[in-house]
Amino acid sequence: MTMNERLKKIIVEDLFLEDIEPEEIDDEEALFGDDGLGLDSLDAVELVVQVQKHFGVEIKNMDEGRVAFGSINTLAAFIEERQ
Amino acid sequence: MQQPDETSSKTTRQWSGRAVGAGWQYNFFYCMIRIGGRRLAYLIAYGVVFYYTLFTPSQRAKTKYYLDKKFPGKNSFGRFTDSFRMILNLAKILIDRAVTGTMGMAGMHVTLHGREALLNLLDEKKGVILMMSHVGCWQVALSALNFLNVPVNLLMHQEEGDVDRHYFEQHGLSSMFKIIDPNSYLGGTLDMLAALKNNEVLSVMGDRVIQGSSNIIHVPFLGKEVPFHYSPFKIASASGSPIVVLFSYKTSPDSYELKVARIIRVPKNLGRSGKVFSPYVEQYVHALESYTDEHPYQFLNFYDMWGTKT
Question: Which residues in B lie closer than 8 A to residue A44 (C-beta atoms)?
Fold first, then answer.
């Protein structure tokens, strides 16, 4: 399973998303906000915790969050840089 | 002060830090304190509050929302005296917080019930979410938490004109606390989580929501449903941090007591729906109701909590 596939599975399963399958998430799709996947600020909290749990990588603050949480691709790149 | 919500900046605020009184009135009392001390300011407060309670129905009406639920069926005189007591307590508390802001805690006695519990929770190294409310004097409460020896992060709007923000800036207390703005990226949640990971205290207000904001559930409070944010409970679930419900109340002209009213543990992996957090929000609300039984006139929400449409 690729990093992107793992992330999509984590987002759907650990964030308890309904009515969407991991493979339906586009690599370039915005994760947060009204456009794209539509995750919210509380999903961000859970995602930070899950990224640390699964990959041992911390997203420490808002600045890092802005970089990491653009899309699946940016999140994967953020994790790979720090592993 | 509000809970994290990335949509909140687009909403209209139903309440305001200036819900009772205007900015110049606060400054007037700051001036009185400097000239004559707290006792003089108290004395003036009695006259000013009596005048406003008697001659400005609009100010009196702001106490009605709560008093109608807390003491239904009171006659006009009873309601007037209740309104007077509520507004007078607010005035005294504003004076007290101005005094502590300008002169520190000298002369103000604060007793904390639950000190050991707080220290033990910090020993767990998961941070502490301190759930405060607009009751008593939460600024005095925070000032008395120095013994914890960890930074205190306040979730606070950075809007001009907010009295709470005004207090911290006026008295230079902003340097003692870290302010997290809920209007920042992702509602400031990443900074909140970082603070908890560093075993710091995150202080949030549990009793107010902004009209139109999300992450709300309705829970009965004093017999009728009121919207409450479940965001702090979700953060507690994700981080494993305990929620400490802390109330303050004035016990004499120069003393306050703080009480750890409840410690709420929110399990992990509860899900995404707000409903799953309902039992934990209810624990907070029950504690708040108990507070209003013990200190009915130190409840300082002067707006219609029950009529808020979200």
Answer: 186, 189-190
User: Could you count the other beta carbons within 10 Å of the beta carbon of residue B289?
Assistant: 14
Q: Strand ranges (DSSP E) for chain B?
A: 109-113, 128-132, 152-155, 177-180, 201-205, 216-221, 224-229, 243-252, 255-264
A43 CB within 8 Å of a chain B CB:
yes
Q: Can you give the residue range of the structural domain that contains A66?
A: 3-82
**A45·B271 Cβ contact <8 A:** no
Q: How many residues does chain A have?
A: 83
Per-residue model confidence (pLDDT) at position B164: 58
What is the C-alpha separation between B10 and A72, in angstroms, rounded? Answer: 27
Say yes or no for a CB contact (<8 Å) between B185 and A48.
no
CATH (domain of A64): 1.10.1200.10
SS3 at position B169: helix
Per residue in B22-55, pLDDT (tens digit) is: 667 777 767 777 787 888 889 999 999 999 999 9
Strand-pair partners of B228: B217
Q: Measured between CA atoms, how close is A42 to chain B, in angstroms?
A: 7
- For residue A54 the two structure tokens come to 């699964």
- At B21 the pLDDT is 63
Q: Please state, in angstroms and rounded to a whole number, the distance separating the CA atoms of residues A22 and A12.
A: 6
pLDDT digits (tens, 9 = 90+) for B98-134: 777 777 776 788 999 999 999 999 999 999 999 999 9
Nearest to B258 by CA among B297, B209, B295, B300: B295
Give the other-Cβ count within 10 Å of B120's Cβ. 12
In the 8-state DSSP scheme, what is residue B197?
A: H
